[in-house]
Amino acid sequence: VICKLQALRSHTGSAEGGIAASLGNIEKDCWQWHYYDTVHGGDWLSDQDAAKMLAKEARDTVIELEHFGVAFSRTEDGHINQRFFGGHTADFGQQPIRRAAYAADRIGHQILYSLWQKCIEENIKIEEDIYVTDLAINHKSNSVEGIIALNEKSGKVEKICARNVLIATGGAGRLFSTTSNSWDLTGDGMSLALNAGLQLEDIEFIQFHPTGLAHTGILLSEAARGEGGVLRNCKNEAFMKNYDDTHADLAPRDVVSRSIVSEIDALRGVEDTTSNIDRKDCVWLDMTRIEKQHMLEALPQVVETIEKYAHLDPSKDLIPIRPTAHYTMGGIPISLNGQVYKLVNNKKQRIIGLYAAGECA
């Protein structure tokens, strides 16, 4: 494993709210409902074969992560606990359902450390502070031959030969001034593919998370609304019911983000009281109805972030939020088993030995 940072500083650690999986630990659920929600949430633009695979395999994947040591929050009888999340429904869109398996609001941190420990157990070598500059691809044989990398510790450029290369470099959220992404998410994997003569797919699709902390962009997890948080405009009106009367504040992220912008455009926004910016380009996140002790148990990172960066008490104060660039939906084209391909005369041509996974794909 080659990392441009220390492995445990990877952006996975910033994932907060939970993972969708039809475990059915709290209420009846099935993968078909999860499949429908995934395709519906993508406005029917998703790769439906990939969405089906995601929905069918999510349950076993979450259980595998539990076996790796991820400390999920538990029900009283010891099962993995689940909470409401935007866009998760029962009976094909009829009513919200508790589908997100979570670990308080630090699920990414738990996964990152558990997978790192699993790598140590399996004697996987992790090379840190090495920045990959180029993919070595033989275009005559359509195969990967390795990578070129800058060793940041020695300052030397090195070649690393490999018959198989997996790109898992994350997204490109730093394109935006208001973003939840850390400073290292600069689209490196996508850049490597382009520079190697490959293609990118659907790169115009960027997911915005509805609840970035005002102008900092720092993420306030969707779990805040899953636990009872409500979005309000300058009239103190809970406006999401006007845009989605079924799911309200638990509508899919794109619906909620667009609704917030619509409120701001209609001059119903509020000022960011935590900064010296005097534009009314935020709305309120109201968490005051969540019991404080429950808030500290279920949303410790959200509370800590608000107290540290906004100097507000979410149990008493309304929190200024606005949409923040969150997830790069397009990327390197891959097949269902992660193999990178390029289109030649409208036919998929596989790059032998080259794979991509996660947000860069």
Explained architecture:
- This protein is an alpha+beta fold and 361 residues long.
- The chain contains eight helices and 13 strands.
- A four-stranded antiparallel β-sheet has the order 8-11-10-9. It has a three-stranded antiparallel β-sheet with strand order 1-3-2, with helices on both faces.
- Helix 1 packs across helix 2.
- The longest helix has 21 residues.
- The mean pLDDT is 94.
Q: How would a textbook summarize the main sheet? A: 4 strands, antiparallel
**SSE pattern, N- to C-terminal:** EHHEEHEEEEHEHEHEHHEEE
Rg, rounded, reads 21 Å
- Derived from helix and strand composition plus strand pairing, the structural class reads alpha+beta
Strand content: 15-25%
Helix fraction bin: 10-25%
Total E-strand runs: 13
Number of helices: 8
Mean pLDDT: 94
Note the gap between the termini: 18 Å
Sheet with the most strands: spatial strand order: 8-11-10-9
Give a brief rundown of this model.
Helices cover 25% and strands 24% of the residues.
Write the layout of secondary structure elements.
Elements: E1 19-20, H1 31-41, H2 48-68, E2 82-90, E3 95-101, H3 107-121, E4 130-138, E5 143-151, E6 157-161, E7 165-167, H4 188-195, E8 206-213, H5 223-226, E9 230-232, H6 253-265, E10 283-286, H7 292-298, H8 300-310, E11 319-328, E12 339-344, E13 347-356
Parallel strand pairs: 7-13
Antiparallel strand pairs: 1-3, 2-3, 4-5, 5-6, 8-11, 9-10, 10-11, 12-13
